[in-house]
Amino acid sequence: MPTLINMEIDRSKTLAVTGHRTLNLDFSKKKLTEKFISYIEEGYETFLIGMAIGFDTVCFQTLEKLKKSYPHIKLIACVPCINQAEKFSMLQKLEYKRMLSVADEVVYVGKEYTNTCMQKRNMFMVDHASLVFAYIKRDFGGTANTVKYAQKQGVTVEKY
Question: What is the structure's pLDDT at 112?
Fold first, then answer.
């Protein structure tokens, strides 16, 4: 299984994204693009993305487009388990496979689905980043737990 160990990674220039599967009506791809341009211009080069439906997918797609103007950035797909996409729709599975194929690196944090694999993936991303960019609209669930973990670890969290 691929891991980050095989890559040169500078944590100080690494950003992890976390967010909900459902995006509110106030969500703006333009604002997201502007945020990522700002992060890239601040020196962030490596982006850790959990590959879930929703915020993760939109972040990957946005960064993939930005890579045309900023070819030095790296997109790391952090996959919680091999069968992550099992319950995705057919269209979601096709896009998921496409994104994995264009990622600079794919990291499988675990092999099989367990009730903790998503949490382990999120902790892995926080543990390898200096900044967590979060789309968070409620104080419970996986995104909230990831933000709390990052804060406990002293990792900066910026909210969308």
Answer: 92
- Residues 11, 80: Cα–Cα separation, whole Å: 20
Please write the tens of the pLDDT for every residue from 17-32: 999 988 988 899 999 9
Q: What is the pTM of this model?
A: 0.93
Identity of the amino acid at 80: P
Domains and CATH numbers, the chain: 4-20+29-159 (3.40.50.450)
- Cα separation of 128 and 45, whole Å? 13
How does pLDDT run across 93-142, given as a tens digit for each residue?
999 999 999 999 999 999 999 999 999 999 999 999 999 999 999 999 99
Residue 73 to residue 155: CA distance in whole angstroms: 21
Rounded Cα distance, 84 and 152, in Å: 27
- Per-residue pLDDT, 160: 94
CB-neighbour burial class of residue 113 (10 A; exposed 0-12, middle 13-18, buried 19+): middle
- Give phi and psi for 131, each to the nearest 5: -145, 135
Largest CA distance in the chain: 40
